[in-house]
Design brief:
33% of the residues lie in helices and 28% in strands. It is an alpha+beta fold and 736 residues long. It has 7 domains: 2-115, no CATH class; 119-150; 153-220 and 508-525, no CATH class; 235-393, P-loop containing nucleotide triphosphate hydrolases (Rossmann fold, 3-Layer(aba) Sandwich), CATH 3.40.50; 415-493, Elongation Factor Tu (Ef-tu), domain 3, CATH 2.40.30.10; 532-630, 3-Layer(aba) Sandwich (Rossmann fold), CATH 3.40.50.10050; 634-730, Translation factors (Elongation Factor Tu (Ef-tu), domain 3, Beta Barrel). The longest helix is centred in the N-terminal third of the chain and has 32 residues, at 65-96.
């Protein structure tokens, strides 16, 4: 027994090496943690004096397999026992190691080795634990996010507020949702979209309600006039600017043609002026008069008002055979509003039936008293066709201008006003400018309304190219980036940078047309949703005609229908206009313009009709007729006959026949009918059939008896009254 105790442990290595160590290490690992160790190189013990089998073989001695096997078993046993001791020592040391080394040890323990891979049970446990750790970390991150949301505090921002701003831009500056702002405005009674603009006060109110601090932006000040410290130029006498005004067809253009020996009136469609024309006429002795011809039609009110603002003297033309008319009174009102002196030219004095004294008496009601009647208004009796007293008219204009002492600076940057604007094929935007001050030169940079440009060419009233223009001179200029609006101020600036700056500033201010304000709770969407709308697309040759036509159409009012202009522009009708008309189901009106070939082709393929006009009142009539087509026709009823039910007959097929006698008119088959009982209508439908002596009949006249059946009605009784009637649908007109 003692020998067995003292006997060393040996490890038997069999030929199936993979099975033995696997089962052995599995039992060991269940009790102790296993840490892989580096394999030590095998070192022979030279002190023992023994020779190794390899040495013996090298010396040529026979191979002793038993000896080699025994030796390998002994060495493996030593290594195994030594590794067990080292593992126990390391486990004890790990318990005493500080926390800094734990992470490193954990990482080492988590590494997958061959031994761990062979231990399937441990491998599966490790896989499950890693997945759970990942899930736990994910839950922690989600909890952190939720905590941050709960702890979120609203950032109070300083919001810059301009004079006008869109709802979209305001939401971006506040870092708020645009839907929240729209909802807020809706609660305040204002319906809007993100593209609508709001004023400064409304913006401030919204910003404060959302918890932010409003800061008002400083409005950029752009001086359009010359500085006071700049050089002042000497004032010189300038030609008078005379506007010819009056009722339509009273001879305004004919009078101007006679003064300038031209024939403008023959080129006007319908014999009426539809554009502002500017001309210069010689009055002798180096005297020049600038004339502005305005249209007389009622639709051109804005053009007449614009002409009276830029003029020095107004020549009021009154036909001697027609007298004072509405546009005559309107011209007087425009002149008085502009505080402009009036010279009355009584035209057509050569015609029979003229009553000059009556005209003078009628004008007295409007404070225009002739000098012959102790007044201060100049009256001139003229004839445009026979050129009677034209020189006298010129003399009176020059006399009036001398009294006014008209002067202007002929040096320095030019100023003016736009009389008319159009898009010319081949030349682009063209504007008629009336210079009011300074010297206008070719190559000058200018700003006009919300557009700017550089003068490429100037054309005078005689269609001649000029390089300079002075006060009271009308010229056409080329070089605008886009068409200007009639009535816009024209100003020459130093360079392109300044012109663009002013143009951008005016362009921002132009957006005020869409401005919302809470104080008046302006509605964007028309509450009159029950009204039927007629969409209209207008294309005109010049801005003045477009403006006049647009204003005239907008004045058309009705309780059931209304026009809606979705586009009003100048220039030719293009394919974009046709596409818009198709999408919006609009009518297209071309005033003095035609479509281009591509637009014409698209209109034909898409069945879109384009109406062309060159007289403004005909275009207005077309819109009125189109609106009339949207009106519901009037329903007119007329009674054809009456009958009384005397007796009721039952038929075999469970039907009933009203035995009746026609008391008035006639009863027709398939006509509309009402059954009246005790003054109340109990049935309103249609007669199904009429029988006369067991035969079907088409109609039964008064005094005859018949049997009548009704469609889907059997509840009639004796003494009920039958009323046969017809309904006529009458088309309505908007002006009715």
């Amino acid at each position: 027994m003692e020998k067995n105790k003292n006997k060393k442990k040996t490890l038997t290595i069999s030929s199936s090496f993979t099975k033995g160590p696997a089962s052995f290490t599995r039992n060991k690992i269940e009790k102790k943690s296993f840490v892989p160790q580096k394999k030590k190189s095998f070192k022979p013990n030279f002190k023992s004096g023994k020779t190794w089998p390899s040495q013996q073989l090298s010396k040529g001695k026979p191979n002793n397999r038993n000896l080699n096997r025994r030796f390998a078993e002994q060495e493996a046993t030593k290594r195994f026992i030594g590794s067990d001791k080292k593992i126990l020592d390391r486990d004890k040391a790990r318990e005493k190691t500080p926390a800094k080394n734990k992470d490193f040890q954990t990482r080492r323990q988590s590494k997958l080795t061959i031994s761990r891979a062979m231990n399937v049970e441990e491998f599966e446990i490790k896989q499950r634990s890693l997945a759970s750790v990942k899930r736990a970390r994910l839950r922690e991150k989600q909890d952190e996010k939720s905590d941050t949301k709960k702890e979120f505090k609203k950032v109070i921002r300083e919001v810059k507020i301009p004079e006008q701003i869109t709802i979209q831009e305001l939401s971006n500056r506040m870092a708020e949702q645009s839907a929240s702002i729209i909802k807020f405005l809706l609660n305040m009674g204002v319906k809007a979209t993100i593209n609508h603009s709001i004023d400064k006060d409304t913006s401030e109110y919204i910003v404060r309600e959302f918890g932010h601090t409003p800061i008002f932006e400083e409005v950029p000040t752009v001086s359009l006039s010359k500085k006071s410290d700049e050089k002042k130029y000497n004032l010189e006498t300038r030609p008078p600017i005379v506007t010819i005004m009056g009722h339509v067809d009273h001879g305004k253009t004919s009078l101007l043609d006679s003064l300038r020996n031209s024939d403008v009136v023959s080129g006007e469609h319908g014999g009426i002026t539809q554009h502002i024309g500017a001309y210069q006429v010689s009055a002798g002795k180096n005297k020049i008069i600038t004339f502005i011809d305005t249209p007389g039609h009622a639709a051109f009110t804005e053009m007449r008002a614009r002409g009276s603002k830029v003029t020095d003297i107004v020549v009021l033309v009154v036909a001697a055979d027609d007298g004072v008319k509405p546009q005559t009174v309107e011209a007087i009102q425009h002149s008085k509003a502009a505080k402009v002196p009036i010279i009355v030219a009584i035209n057509k004095c050569d015609l029979p039936g003229s009553n000059i004294e009556k005209i003078k008496n009628d004008l007295m009601r409007y404070e225009l008293i002739a000098e012959s009647l102790s007044g201060d208004t100049l009256f001139v009796e003229v004839s445009a066709t026979k050129k009677t007293n034209l020189d006298k008219l010129k003399e009176n204009i020059i006399l009036q201008s001398e009294v006014l002492d008209l002067k202007a600076a002929k040096k320095g940057n030019a100023k003016g006003i736009v009389l008319e604007s159009k898009i010319d094929k081949g030349r682009g935007p063209v504007s008629t400018i009336l210079v009011t001050e300074g010297e206008l030169k070719k190559g000058d940079h200018f700003v006009c309304g919300s557009t700017f440009g550089k003068i490429r060419a100037m054309i005078d009233f005689e269609a001649k190219n000029v390089d300079r223009a002075y006060p009271s001179s009308p010229v056409e200029i080329l070089g605008m980036k886009e068409p200007a609006n009639a009535g816009d101020e024209f100003l020459v600036v130093e360079n392109e940078v300044e012109s663009k700056k002013i143009s951008d500033f005016r362009r921002v201010g132009k957006k005020s047309n869409n401005t919302l304000a809470l104080k008046d709770k302006t509605k964007i969407f028309d509450n009159e949703s029950t009204k039927k709308e007629l969409n209209v697309i207008l294309k005109s040759d010049v801005q003045g005609s477009s403006e006049a036509l647009r204003n005239a159409i907008n004045k058309i009012t009705h309780s059931e229908v209304k026009p809606k202009i979705i586009l009003s522009d100048i220039g030719m009708i293009n394919e974009t206009d046709i596409s818009l008309a198709k999408a919006s189901n609009a009518i297209v009106i071309g005033f003095n313009v035609k479509p281009n070939p591509e637009a014409k082709k698209n209109a034909q393929s898409q069945n879109i009709k384009i109406e062309f006009f060159n007289i403004i009142y005909k275009a207005i009539e077309h819109v009125e007729n189109s609106l009339s087509g949207l009106l519901e026709p009037d329903r007119k009823e007329s009674v054809e006959g009456t009958a009384e039910i005397l007796k009721i007959f039952k038929l075999s097929n469970s039907g009933k026949v009203a035995g009746s006698k026609v008391t008035d008119g006639e009863i027709k088959n398939n006509s509309k009918a009402r059954i009246i009982r005790d003054g109340k209508v109990i049935y309103d439908g249609q007669i199904a059939s009429i029988f006369r002596e067991k035969n079907a009949a088409k109609e039964v006249k008064s005094g005859l008896e018949c049997g009548i059946t009704f469609r889907n009605f059997l509840d009639f009784k004796e003494k009920d009254m039958i009323e046969s009637y017809k309904v006529d649908m009458i088309e309505r007109q908007i002006n009715d």
